[in-house]
Specification:
The protein has about 70 residues and is an alpha+beta fold. The chain has 3 helices and 4 strands, in the order βαβαββα. It has a domain at about 10-30 and about 50-70: Glutaredoxin. It has a 4-stranded mixed β-sheet with strand order 2-1-3-4. Helix 1 (about 10-20) packs parallel to helix 3.
């Protein structure tokens, strides 16, 4: 699994907590909101809404933290 997130994002933090509580391994990929990396074309290809977090798992891209937590 890959988790695209920003360290100061509350929604990203909530998802990291859920992943860690479940003991799931994931690769964290930093998206620096201060440098507006979420607005670039590379991230827009991952999430057209340009928000973090994004969880990539089983060839799926999930973009809403409550839905991701429910899926977990």
């Amino acid at each position: 699994m890959k988790l695209y997130s920003f360290f100061r994002s509350g929604t990203s933090h909530r998802l990291r907590i859920a992943l860690n509580l479940k003991g799931l391994a994931y690769e964290q990929i930093a998206v620096d909101l201060r440098r507006e990396e979420h607005l670039g074309d590379a991230f827009k290809a991952i999430n057209p809404q340009q928000f973090v977090p994004v969880l990539e798992a089983d060839e799926r891209l999930m973009i809403q933290s409550p839905a991701i937590i429910e899926w977990l």
